[in-house]
């Protein structure tokens, strides 16, 4: 196992089934494995199906995102279906929990403290379940970076991927001092995003991963990202860190193995 896109969405409405199949085929040809994450309960079937068809490429994580496409989920609504997450972990079908997290962007929260509380409850529960099952969490934390870190630390997880972390670098450094095993993944948008560039330069070797966050965080704004974008991202990040691309690949290979466990 060499390359890993550790945070990807390939479900509708982002990609058609045909597009998803093609992307997975191309990723396979390029030796890229993909962690596919969900946002809502309705995504679970598609992600599991893609993983069943492509067991050597797709690693499925299921989880409930803080912002739902169609509606905001209440904690009560979450609890009614939580058993689906538990079932998929018990059956070892889902390999981790994601995409979960907190999103305190002003347009999401709009002074609605209840919305914040619901997000926190839903997030905490999933962080606890991950600890219980000893699996990784794949964490979204927009304008809530240090809140997300605090919540996870309260529960005590060590298997953590902070995806496209947009918080301050001082939170990253403090976090890694306390949690030397956590990962922060750099999205393909590092090629156009100063904040991500700073993070990519800062991260210690032990804590860096790459992701496309397909279709969202590609190198060109407005063009859908795919897992293939991590190939250029690797070269770009190696230059930023002033290392050989092969050396960075070796570091990533080691980190990717830690994320995927011994059975991959
Ligand atoms: Zn995402």
Tell me the helix content: 40-55%
Q: What is the CA-atom radius of gyration, in angstroms? A: 17 Å
Strand order, sheet with most strands: 1-2-3-4-5-6-7-8
What gap, in angstroms, lies between the N and C termini? Answer: 7 Å
Largest pleated sheet: 8 strands, parallel
Task: Give me the oligomer status.
Answer: single chain
Q: List the helices and strands in order.
A: EHEHEHEHHEHEHEHEHH
How many helices? The count is: 10
Low-confidence stretches: none
Task: For this entry, give a set of tags.
single chain; 264 residues; alpha/beta; eight-stranded parallel beta sheet; 8 strands; binds zinc ion
In short:
With about 260 residues, the chain is of the alpha/beta class. The chain is about 45% helix and about 15% strand. The radius of gyration is 17 Å and the shape is globular.
Mind explaining what this structure looks like?
- With 264 residues, the protein is α/β, with parallel strands linked by helices.
- The chain has helices spanning 17-29, 44-53, 75-90, 106-109, 113-133, 145-155, 169-178, 194-202, 229-240, 245-260; strands at 3-8, 32-36, 58-62, 96-103, 136-142, 160-163, 183-187, 208-211.
- Helix 9 crosses helix 10 (245-260).
- It is globular.
- It binds zinc ion.
- Zinc ion (ZN) is lined by residues 7, 9, 99, 213.
- Zinc ion (ZN) binds next to loops.
